[in-house]
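In the previous lecture we treated proteins in isolation. Real proteins rarely work alone, and many bind small molecules. This record shows how such a complex is specified: first the sequence, then the SMILES for NAP.
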Amino acid sequence: MILLLAGTTEARKMGWLLADYGIAAVATLAGETKVPADLGIAVETGGFGGEDGFRAFLAQRGITGVIDATHPFAVRITERTYRICTELGLPYMQLMRPHWEPEPDDTWFMVDDMAQVADFVPQGARVLVAAGRKAAEDLSLPGREVFVRVIDPQPEKDGVTWIVGRPPFSLAEEVDLLRRHRIDWIIAKNAGGAADGKLLAARQLHLPVVMVNRPPAPVTPCRERVQDVLDWVMDL
Ligand SMILES: NC(=O)c1ccc[n+]([C@@H]2O[C@H](COP(=O)([O-])OP(=O)(O)OC[C@H]3O[C@@H](n4cnc5c(N)ncnc54)[C@H](OP(=O)(O)O)[C@@H]3O)[C@@H](O)[C@H]2O)c1
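The predicted 3D structure, ligand included, written as tokens:
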């Protein structure tokens, strides 16, 4: 039985691929999203209840391999999972997307955390925060018009306009959104991977982006593409 640690678009693709190939697998989610997307395989939500809970889960479910398809910014779950798998001799593979890199026409300002974002975004700017709800909580942008993209509807909050939607978003959707709200700055996290609608739209509309670099993370066995991780599972 394979354990798929999910919580990303790539994890969703991985789940469907495991299902298509008839590989016995269970996916888990932290429970951040109220109505999770269908992953094609059984999903359990709400975390393991800490390290002991995770160890018990591995034993009780007879887990024979772990695919870590969590977000590059979710470093705690990755560190713990890799450490425990290594200790138990349990095969582990991270699905890790390559960083996004700016192209010559892009205007990106790289920062290491949300606290630095305010140094770049001028007063009066109309800002799309496309870095997750939790990241937006760490962001203080007085004097700017702030739009925060979230998956689930949120209670009203002073100074914030919520934009509800589930990724991925196409270039056309993003251009439309940016124009409709007259956005002139974008805040993103360097999640990486396939061409990203908001970054393509920023390029097309010549909008500046503040890009939050990935946090330091453990060096793990990893593959960049869903298909390559499937090959790894097939060889177990
Ligand atoms: N951080 C981001 O920017 C970001 C962006 C998009 C999606 N996500 C997804 O949201 C989830 C939470 O992110 P985070 O940054 O809060 O993670 P984190 O700090 O690394 O993990 C916090 C706790 O969440 C639980 N958890 C996380 N991923 C899980 C999974 N796939 N299955 C079961 N439990 C999981 C674990 O709880 P227990 O200790 O109870 O087991 C873990 O100790 C992750 O799955 C991540 O892939 C995160």
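Summary for your notes: The pocket of NAP is lined by residues 5-8, 28-30, 32, 47-50, 53-54, 70-71, 73-77, 132, 189 (CB under 6 Å). Helices lie at 9-20, 50-60, 75-88, 133-137, 171-180, 197-205, 226-234.
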